[in-house]
Write a structure and sequence with these properties.
Layout: E1 10-13, E2 16-22, H1 28-33, H2 47-56, E3 60-67, E4 70-80, E5 85-93, H3 102-118, E6 122-128, H4 132-140, E7 144-153, E8 156-166
Antiparallel strand pairs: 1-2, 2-3, 3-4, 4-5, 6-8, 7-8
């Protein structure tokens, strides 16, 4: 069963058409099946972990990123009191769909979707300091680097750059 698509949920960029659908019982296996390349491990949490967190923590929103009828990626966003503000906390494109422009187009489409849905003036992200590809992509669509942070989560040490985009 397909989630009803609202106008803001479907955005076209040239030949690439990106759509956001809620993760539910009809598509959660597709989300779990999306994986990243080994070289990207440590940059984004496993989708299974994100889905469990969203099921048990309030205020986490999960969406599948679709190109036509195929889920090509996944994102999770929330209101983060540490900024304080809305944060794109997880964003990934499955390894089999990378290199086709979906990541950048989905990020651009999400900014429009997010602004229409929440009428927010800013969106924050945190990117691993070592993830040069993501930092370059986010910078290319207008995110500005704010500050470096270090923290420990589930026994793992993280070093990230916080970025913000004025909407």
């Amino acid at each position: 069963m397909r989630t009803k698509v609202k106008q803001a949920d479907l955005l076209e960029f040239g030949e690439v058409r990106m759509e956001f659908r809620e993760i539910d019982k009809s598509n959660y296996w597709d989300c779990i099946a999306l994986t990243i390349d080994e070289s990207q491990e440590g940059f984004v949490a496993d989708n299974k972990q994100s889905l469990v967190e969203a099921a048990y923590e309030d205020g986490l929103y999960v969406l599948g990123i679709y190109h036509e009828e195929t889920m090509v990626g996944f994102l999770l966003y929330d209101y983060d009191d540490t900024f304080p503000g809305w944060s794109l906390s997880r964003f990934m494109i499955g390894k089999q769909f990378q290199g086709k422009g979906y990541g950048k187009q989905a990020a651009i489409a999400f900014l429009a979707y997010f602004k229409a849905k929440h009428n927010a003036s800013k969106l924050y992200i945190s990117v691993s300091l070592e993830n040069k590809v993501a930092r370059k992509m986010y910078s290319s669509i207008g995110f500005k680097e704010m500050k470096e942070v270090e923290y420990t989560f589930l026994g793992m040490q993280f070093r990230e750059i916080q970025m913000v985009k004025e909407l």
